Amino acid sequence: MTDISEHDAEQALIEQVLAAADAGTPLCIRGGGSKDFYGNPARASRTLDCATHRGVVAYEPSELAITVRAGTPLADVEALLQANGQQFPFEPPHFGPAATIGGMVAAGLSGPRRPYAASVRDAVLGVRLLNGRGQALGFGGRVMKNVAGYDLSRLMAGSLGVLGVLLEVSLKVSPAPVGRMTLVQEQSLSGALALMRRWARRSLPVTATAWSGGRLSVRICGSEDALAESHRLIGGLPLPDADRFWQDLREQRLDFFAGEAPLWRLSLPPATPLECLDAVCAGDDPGADQLVEWGGAQRWLRGDLPADGLRAAATAAGGHATLFRAGADQAAPAAIPVGGVFTPLQPVVLRLHRNLKQAFDPAGLFNPGRLYPEF
Amino acid sequence: MPRIPDERPLSPQPGIIDELRRRLPTASVLSTPAELAPYECDGLTAFRQRPMVVVLPETVEQVQTVLRLCHAARVPVVARGAGTGLSGGALPLEDGVLLSLARFNRILHIDPDNGTARVQPGVRNLAITEAAAAHGLYYAPDPSSQIACSIGGNVAENSGGVHCLKYGLTVHNILRLTLIGIDGELFEVGAEALDSPGLDLLALMTGSEGMLAVIVEITVKLLPRPERAQGLLAAFDSVERAGAAVARLIASGITPAGLEMMDNPAIRAAEAFVHAGYPEDAAAVLICELDGFNAEVSFEVMRVRELLLDAGATEVRTARDDAERLNFWKGRKAAFPAVGRLSPDYYCMDGTIPRRELATVLKRIEALSEHYGLRVANVFHAGDGNLHPLILYDANVPGELDKAEDFGGDILELCVQVGGTVTGEHGVGVEKLNQMCVQFDSDELTQMHAVKAAFDPHGLLNPGKAVPTLHRCAEFGAMHVHHGELKFPELPRF
Which residues form the FAD-binding PCMH-type domain (chain A) (predicted)? Predict the structure, then answer.
């Protein structure tokens, strides 16, 4: 059994939040700092270090749920789950050894399994958080089904800390698959998109898909018979050391992600045709600067691409575009598009965001500007 | 009859009826007593209240008009779908407008390549699956009322169903909502993609019981029909053993599409009603459905069968065909009306507990049943710990309804005490306001009110539902103490 060190820093965190409220000093909430690159820069000079608030509060494998303090290292929790034959169904990226559970939820990022299982947000069952008044509040719970009151716990997933400081998170976990196999075939990007859609129309045990550089990889999970049968239907050659491939994809360690060029993330309806980007990415080979996963629903682009054009194309297709990594000059303001790294919100929705910020954090203490420059 | 829980002072403004008539088609405004009567309650029939007026708009612009008028005149609005909710979430207000979305009943677009359907909120849950069937797709959440309940109501309540163990609740199966705020402004949350920029308002809206905005369009996810579905039925001579079998099955790494439990009173009621062939002497039965890729289902069926026998099942039946599988479900799906035949009235509860607490909670319910002198039958989404105890009573016997409500309240507080929640899938509505005071403290409730105010500063959208006022909680706490025995002294109170 993995040992996870215990430390309850809740009181200390409350005191720091109250002191910041008194002094009117905005706070940059930080766990392990592994996702510092993500989002817009927070307008806060003081850091609230949450990594000391750590430990497993409750874990009983047969309940398929775990409750942990937000500063607990993600790697430790995953090791604990693995020792019990379980996993997080959304395969969260770590982006560094110091990644914490709180950062995982606040960033709201999911890995290769996401479209076939769940997102981080889907798996959140409950949270305990500090609001801007320094009050420790619990929402949701530790059970699978819970509709008591507004769902303020799933609201925290992907909120980048602008509403509150996560103290504890309860998450749904899932059994780790018995058997798995990754199949690779040569495909053009348009061929790969068509195949991924065709597989999505059948109840195949597919748990990850990715296309890059002319190769389509698909992971299937299940019993021996199910693997054999779905291999027959899907085709391709088994990839040795496949776990490592999916991990490298999740952690953005594949060659595609190397170098300093800006990295864009497009979240699109999965069947969105390749041509949707024709106006933005001129060139003979449309796949040259793309890596496509999630059955077509998540597409990564490299290069100095025009933010407005990408956003317009993604929005027209029903999705959105995020400047995931701003490239070499991340600190330079010019590297970040007007309105920030995320696609700007509709005016009504922006107003609701501000109102919600006001409802949780009236003094604007937490991560100001991290999600959108306006709040 | 229970008191109407809304604590606002009444501010009747009948003038708005004429205003609505001027702006909407004649057939869209109902105000005579006979017209209003069908809207006086939802599926929680113990609570009844006629609204001041009912409107049935047909277009988004008309909904905007209604909300703008109500906003300007400060008249409260209660949105309503099919009215099948079980917690009184659509209970009208005496001085309010009842906004029925029943005429928003069109399926706008099915996109088989993206696996989505764009629908209006008044579309029936099952109608989506029926329309998607031609493409080999279906909409997964299947509340037991799915032939009648509307998808808009499903979103408002975050409805579940017997298959949500594997496929999730409504919140996991929708992508995008178009809504209208109380000020009449139209906005969208979510996207046709798997995520959207900004805060997850899609999650916040789901299950918000019509208190934040009115839904006028929904994009739902569609899934491919499983290649095969296989049913198993297992009998146990004690509920403890059945509960332990559930824990083992879940821990084994298999996620059934559905895993339901019925106790002996529920088994006998169902058997007498639909003759599904259930073993009537069993203390509990488990109904398990496995679905998906054919080869995987074959493997799982063998494992589940072994596991159930090993866990002490006295009998395990594997459905030979679809007809037999549907027969296993027949009794479960008919459990509520079956219990309804045993008693003039029944009261359906909806707590969720950690699965390990199942046996303890069922024993305590049995003790409470003796204490109150009311019978109870238990039907249970065992796989995800969602209990539906059905309390049998007779509303014509003076005091029995009150007793049933107290009994129900005790069950819900018990659920909180063992680490669960007062509502798994039916919502708080007006029914569980008091129990919300047990599950949340005053700071938490205050935060929820602040969230409401972020969307609806004047408290006009479905006021008085879902989140109790602190005043109410103080009175509820006082009432409990007044009875001389604080039921769960270890719970924090204020």
Answer: 1-176
Chain B: closest CA distance from residue A149 (Å): 6
pLDDT at A286: 65
CB of B115 within 8 Å of a chain A CB? The answer is yes
Give the confidence band of B39 by pLDDT, cuts at 50, 70, 90. Answer: very high
CB atoms < 10 A from the CB of B309, how many? 14
Entry pTM: 0.95
Closest Cβ opposite residue B356 in set A62, A115, A122: A62
Place of tokens 């329309």: B131
Strand (E) positions, A229-366?
Answer: 237-238, 263-267, 290-293, 298-302, 320-325
pLDDT confidence of residue A130:
98
B493 belongs to a structural domain = no
Three-state DSSP state, A124: strand
Q: How does DSSP classify residue B103?
A: T
Q: Any idea what DSSP says for residue B10?
A: P
CB pairs under 8 A between A and B: 264
Same structural domain, B349 and B480? yes
Question: Residue A230 and residue B293: Cβ atoms within 8 Å?
Answer: yes
Q: State the average pLDDT over residues B347-355.
A: 92
Residue A211: Cβ-neighbour burial (10 angstroms; 0-12, 13-18, 19+): buried
DSSP code string of B330-387: HHHHTHHHHHHHHSSEEEE---B--GGGHHHHHHHHHHHHHHHT--EEEEEEGGGTEE
Q: Is the pLDDT of residue B147 over 80?
A: yes
Query: Is B85 touching A (CB cutoff 8 A)?
Result: no
- Residues of chain A below pLDDT 70: 1-2, 282-286, 328-334
Instruction: Identify the CATH number of the domain in which residue B465 sits.
Output: 3.30.70.2740
Predicted confidence (pLDDT) at residue B56 exceeds the cutoff of 90: yes
Instruction: Indicate the pLDDT class of residue B5, thresholds 50, 70 and 90.
Output: low
CA separation for the pair B209, B202 (Å, rounded): 13
Mean pLDDT calculated for residue range B392-404: 93
Mean pLDDT value across residues B100-123:
98
How many angstroms separate the CA atoms of B124 and B145, rounded? 10
Residue percentage of chain B with pLDDT more than 70: 95
For residue B107, count CB atoms less than 10 angstroms from its CB and return exposed for 0-12, middle for 13-18, buried for 19 or more.
Answer: middle
A133 forms bridges with which residues in the sheet?
none
Q: Which helix (H) or strand (E) holds B271?
A: helix B264-274
User: So what's the pLDDT on residue A2?
Assistant: 56
Same domain for A29 and A57:
yes
Distance CA B175, CA A268 (A): 12
Window 228-247 of B: residues touching A by CB (8 A cutoff) are 247
Q: How far is B401 from chain A (nearest CA, A)?
A: 23
User: Does B48 reside within a domain?
Assistant: yes
Interface contact B16, partner A, CB < 8 A: no
Q: How many domains does chain B have?
A: 4
Q: How far apart are CA B259 and CA B253, in angstroms?
A: 14
Domain edge (last residue) among A125, A145, A175 = A175
Q: At residue B45, what is the residue type?
A: T
What is d(CA B448, CA B450) in angstroms, rounded to the nearest whole number? 5
Partner A contacted by B494 (CB < 8 A): no
pLDDT at site B11: 80
